[in-house]
Write a structure and sequence with these properties.
heterodimer, A: two-stranded antiparallel ribbon, B: mainly alpha, 2 domains, 17 helices, globular
Amino acid sequence: MSVGKEFTKGLYAENPVFKQALGLCPTLAVSNSVRNAVGMGLAMTFVLVLSNIIVSLIRRFVPRKIRIPIYIVVIATFVTIVDLVMAGFAPDLHKALGIFVPLIVVNCIILGRAEAFAGRNSVFRSLLDGLGMGFGFSLALFVLAFIREILGDGRLYGFPLLGPGFEPMLIMILPPGAFLTIGLLMGLMNWLDKRRCS
Amino acid sequence: MEDKLWKVSTSPHLSDRESIPRIMWLVAASLAPAGIGAVYFFGARAAWTIFLAVASAIATEAAIQKLRGKPITVHDGSAFVTGLLLAYNLPAEVPFWIPIIGSAFAIALGKQIFGGLGYNPMNPALLGRAFLLASWPTHMTIFRTPPRGGTISGIDVETGATPLNLLKQAQDVLHQAKVAPGEVPAQKISEAMMHISKLYESYGNLFWGKVGGCLGETSVFLLLIGAAFLLYKRYIDLRIPVGYIGSVALLTWAFGGSEGLFTGNPLFHVLAGGLVLGAFFMATDMVTSPITPRGKWIFGIGCGVITVIIRLIGGYPEGVSYSILLMNLTVPLLDRYTKPAIFGARKR
């Protein structure tokens, strides 16, 4: 696979949310407003890139049998950094994301990339892979949050958008709204892919 | 003429006049008494709500079938029935866009997205109601129009609140008094107790439909006329409503009372709320209910158990729609595990 593709595959072709359906728990929880989605996307990208680099660097010394605990320790280190930095410089965002920041440790996108990619590829490719997957995750969160915040809250990035006459569709900012939106977008993507193939 | 005599065709050799359009339109007809009752009790606004829900359901069905390049089958009446049932699940006062959006959601995401009639795992009308209830809870739970001919005297003259709502409120007061004795004023407690006893005596109002509630659920009498017709035509199976209503009656009798076991009021719980509408017209939906007799019993009883749990313990006053939706999801499993043995043979 070409080097450029290692980056771009995460954006659409292997998008972690829409194509791999991984990391749905934080996706459901924080994609109800664009502000939360952007914050979560950036935090995830940071952890993904750095954990991918470290996992790739140490891949020759890690014993097969205990690789998962070692990966988790690496990931947890970076999550702790994100958690403390966010609590220090963006306390509102930290409060809004709540438990979902520490939960990045067990996010299956990150562990999945470490296990499936960084643990068996070069450092440079792992960096690109982490960056692509991180941006792909952020993009998915942003698209979901864009739709959900407008319909469910009548606002975008916190600013009123649809006027006072609009009655928000509460279901859209609840988890069922995320399931509906993800399902419909996945269906749309499958339909587009099918049309492009034929 | 001679040719015809020698032609051999495969079975079935007997055909019946029954067809999907015939069944659907007769189901719609069996719902008509309750609809007329709704307009009588709640006024012209009810007629508008019903019309908008039905029109939106039919328009959505036609639009999606056209988009999918499938034959347009709105004449089969199934979208009509879905729109009608959704309207029967709405309060009289909803704004005009509620039935329109609700029906569009019910048809688009409850039915067509799974492949159309016969492929939907859940009852589309109830899915539409659940969607509306989650999206605009204030519009879906305010019953401001009192029915014509009065309500249960002394409690709900002004609001037209549903009997189950009133029961829940009164029981909450009594519960408060039990948890924190002395904090609830004595007058409030006696008022709550009076409300409960009045509710429990209001069988006549509940039976004829002189209570607040969703459009089509209030009059047990008018619903039973339609149900009797469906039973006579054998479009619905008695096992589901009997299992459903029977288990609700038994469980509310056993656990619904405040003075211990078997002091509840089963008749009130059967007549109040959407139980009769749900048990006869929505739990028996051919697509989303089991086909085996044993499966039907389990399905009906399961609906009853969940309804009673929501009514007596849960936060909502009424649990019929959620119980049916939840049991709809078990139908494929029920059908699989209650499959009769082939030729009646027993497994060794």
